[in-house]
Write a structure and sequence with these properties.
five-stranded antiparallel β-sheet; alpha+beta; Beta-Lactamase
């Protein structure tokens, strides 16, 4: 038998054609109808599989009825006898039982339509009835219907189906058959372990036609009968193919529809995904902006955060924030920050006046959103430009949102794009939300700045102005905590004493606010009194400890007190719980005076030890509070190590040293107040500080006047070779002060030993920065000149403004 097997659980159209062809081939050449029937039974038994490479049918029976059933030697009669047309089991594969009393060579040949067959095999009897092959005439002759039939019985339809073949797992029975020739018919019964789908049952109608052809090939069928069988098979096959084609076309149509719907759904999902990503980005950006605005107290950084966030949210080509200020010519608006382009793009434009387009925003009348601002009737009415100034970035889409707090317009956001119709109502809502957050943040920052300036002012009034002492160059600094609004308790003092002595003091009262500042003021006053009495450093600290315990019980203060004897070049120091002073010898060695440190002030009467060290000319001494070296992200030991490195490195004019060290150690991020006192003992008269200072009005004529003063002074000091460099530095620094401060300014030139320092003091809080200008523009390039010429330069804030300084070596 052939080796091809067909999976009955996945029987399809191609399997139907192949199965029929192979069946006809297997039966071809059978010597008799019975042999053909047996080959049919063998084919189905061997070829049908259950999907797991097992046999699908444990039993297959093939029944025949017709003239060939006449027993050998029987007399011929006119027409087939009724008994001859009774179906008999002509072919069988599988287990079976002999009928009781069966005899003869073929005990399986059973006259099915008999009463005993109905009792012994009721299911097969009913199958034949449903195939319409068991209905007989009065003589018992069978009358098979025309064509073919297929009957399927499953286990859910027939109780006791498994009892037919015990232990074989029969799940369904499939019977198919029909007329072979006039007066002849056949039937095939498949006992299957596989539950058959309705689709598979339908396909066996065509298999029935192939089975009929196979059985006819072994008989004496007339050519007309074989032709009729072929025609019927072709018709069944065409009908089946037609049905499948119709179903396939329907499936293709459904698939196309489903594909179209799937693509539409995919596009919708992709669009939704993009929208969700955009929404997530917007939410993330809003959260980031809100956190930054809530935490930021520096006005410049705050507004930059806001403009950057709003520019991204609106999709603008550029965005700007104009701070609402009153200029010299009436209302004008200072360009505070810009996003999307370099700020230098606006350097050559005058400050915008209260034009018709700007008026609604700066008066707080509402939001202005335009798809094309050039078509707005308010556009282009202000001379001399009548529109955008020449060289201005192109603007068609325009969005302006006022930033208001408690009815006051703090400024406005302005956004532009060269294309039309960029800004939508949603963009307007998003920017309006950022503007509201910015207004609150600006109010907080302004309040912080005012309170901080008040705290610094209080601290400055409590701190003394250091007197000048012959033979000593001194400088001091006080910086409140970078993010603390209250006054602190840090202080420094320099107290001249008789006989060439000078007392040096640094201290820190723990805590913040007015109480700490008040305690600090009392301690400082008492310390000056004790110093004037000529008490030794240890005795001063003992008295101060008792004082603190009395005026502020529970308060703790630290202090380092030293007395410098310039005649003996000796320094006596005592330390009460404070960081030790740092001493640099003339040779550059650095040491901390930390050998004898006593407890803090305020713990009652306590004896303090003194330490005496040499302090000859050329030495430098630094007294400081812990805010200089201690930060949350840096251990105090690392800060002290860094301070030692700075003191041991190159040093110069003491004012410049102070600014440079503060930048290196604190950088504007200090968590506590910083106070320091820095002294230098020049080695000879040439090391004494020489100072020349002039005041100038904020007019352009101040620049050449200051340059002449610098050139003349440099010649007087015998430093002609530096005159040109210092004049270039003076040009840039004075011009910046005139341009930005617009208030009186002071120019001071100092010489100490091998250093010359130029300082320019003005009232503007805006500090110069190194900004790279685009090619073809020349703004912001002067500060690069200063950076290239000066040994070092920097800025420091003072009461009412700032100081910009630059230091140059004389050799």
């Amino acid at each position: 038998m052939q080796d091809v097997r067909f999976d009955l659980s996945a029987f399809g159209l191609s399997e139907t054609a192949r199965c029929g062809a192979l069946l006809r081939k297997a039966v071809s050449g059978a010597p008799s109808p019975d042999a053909a029937a047996q080959r049919v039974a063998d084919f189905f038994y061997d070829s049908l599989a259950d999907g797991r490479d097992g046999r699908a049918c444990p039993a297959v029976g093939v029944f025949l009825a017709g003239p060939w059933d006449t027993a050998p030697g029987a007399p011929a009669v006119a027409g087939p006898p009724a008994a001859a047309r009774r179906p008999a089991l002509a072919g069988f594969r599988g287990p079976h039982r002999h009928r009781p009393g069966a005899a003869g060579p073929d005990p399986l040949r059973v006259p099915v339509p008999s009463p005993e067959a109905a009792r012994e095999a009721p299911l097969v009897h009913r199958l034949f009835e449903r195939l319409e092959v068991a209905a007989g005439d009065a003589a018992g002759a069978a009358s098979p219907g025309g064509g073919v039939g297929v009957v399927h019985v499953s286990s859910s339809q027939e109780d006791g189906l498994e009892d037919l073949l015990p232990g074989q797992g029969v799940r369904s029975v499939l019977a198919f058959g029909g007329a072979l020739a006039p007066g002849e018919w056949f039937a095939v019964v498949l006992f299957s372990r596989v539950p058959l789908a309705a689709e598979v049952v339908t396909l066996f109608r065509t298999v029935t036609g192939s089975t009929r052809l196979a059985l006819l090939s072994a008989g004496r069928a007339a050519p007309a009968v074989e032709a009729d069988a072929v025609r019927a098979l072709l018709e069944d096959m065409e009908s089946l193919v037609g049905q499948r084609a119709a179903r396939l076309q329907s499936a293709v149509a459904e698939l196309r529809s489903a594909t179209t719907e799937l693509r539409r759904s995919q596009r919708e999902l992709e669009q939704r995904e993009r929208e969700l990503r955009e929404e997530a980005a917007i939410v993330e950006l809003l959260q980031e902006a809100g956190s930054a605005l809530a935490a930021e107290l520096d006005l410049d950084a705050l507004v930059q955060h806001a403009v950057d966030a709003a520019t991204r949210l609106s999709g603008a080509a550029f965005g700007a924030f104009f701070y609402n200020v009153l200029g010299e010519t009436g209302e004008s608006y200072l360009l505070y920050v810009i996003s999307g382009v370099d700020r230098s793009a606006f350097d050559k434009f005058p400050m915008p006046r209260n034009t018709r387009v700007f008026e609604q925003t700066f008066r707080g009348l509402g939001v202005v959103r335009s798809d094309d601002i050039t078509e707005d009737p308010r556009y282009g009415h202000n001379a001399p430009h009548h529109g955008m100034p020449e060289g201005h970035l192109p603007v068609r889409s325009y969005l302006a949102v006022p930033v208001m707090s408690r009815g006051t317009v703090l400024g406005g956001f302005f956004f532009g794009h060269p294309e039309r119709g960029v800004f939508t109502e949603r963009h307007e809502r998003l920017v309006t939300g950022v503007a509201a957050q910015t207004a609150v943040a600006l109010q907080n920052a302004q309040t912080y700045r005012q309170e901080r300036e008040a705290a610094m002012e209080l601290q400055r009034h409590l701190l003394p102005v250091l007197p000048r002492v012959d033979g000593i160059a001194s400088a001091s600094r006080y910086l409140p905590a970078a993010r603390d609004r209250g006054a602190g308790g840090d202080w420094v003092d320099l107290i001249p004493l008789p006989d060439g002595q000078v007392a040096l003091v640094v201290g820190d009262v723990m805590g913040k606010g007015v109480r700490a500042a008040a305690v600090m003021g009392q301690i400082r006053t008492a310390c000056r009194a004790y110093a004037q009495l000529g008490l030794a450093p240890a005795d001063v600290l003992e008295q101060l400890s008792v004082l603190v315990d009395g005026i502020a019980p529970g308060s703790i203060a630290t202090c380092a007190y030293a007395v410098l004897d310039t005649r003996r070049d000796r320094l006596r120091a005592a330390v009460a719980g404070h960081l030790p002073p740092a001493l640099r010898s003339p040779g550059g060695e650095v040491r901390f005076l930390d050998e004898k440190v006593g407890p803090p002030l305020g713990v009652g009467r306590c004896r303090y030890a003194e330490q005496e060290v040499p302090l000859p000319p050329g030495s430098r001494l630094l007294l400081y509070t812990d805010g200089l070296v201690e930060r949350r992200d840096r251990p105090i030991d690392d800060g002290l190590r860094r301070l030692r490195e700075l003191l041991a490195g190159p040093v110069g004019e003491i004012e410049a040293d102070c600014d440079s060290w503060l930048e290196a150690l604190a950088g504007g991020q200090h968590d506590d107040d910083i106070a320091l006192l820095y002294l230098h003992r020049p080695e000879d008269a040439s090391q004494q500080v020489v100072t020349v200072a002039r005041d100038y009005p904020p007019v352009s004529g101040a620049v050449p006047d200051a340059r002449d003063m610098v050139a003349r002074t440099m010649r007087e000091w015998g430093l002609r070779h530096l005159a040109n460099d210092m004049m270039l530095i003076a040009d840039e620094m004075v011009a910046n002060a005139v341009r930005h401060a617009r208030t009186p300014l002071r120019v001071e030139l100092r010489r100490t030993g091998e250093r010359v320092v130029l300082e320019v003091t003005d009232s503007s809080p805006e500090e110069p920065r190194l900004i790279v200008s685009p090619p073809g523009e020349f703004g912001h390039r002067g500060i690069f000149l200063v950076d290239a010429i000066a040994t070092r330069w920097g800025t420091r804030r003072i009461e009412g403004g700032k100081v910009v300084w630059a230091e140059v070596k004389t050799s």
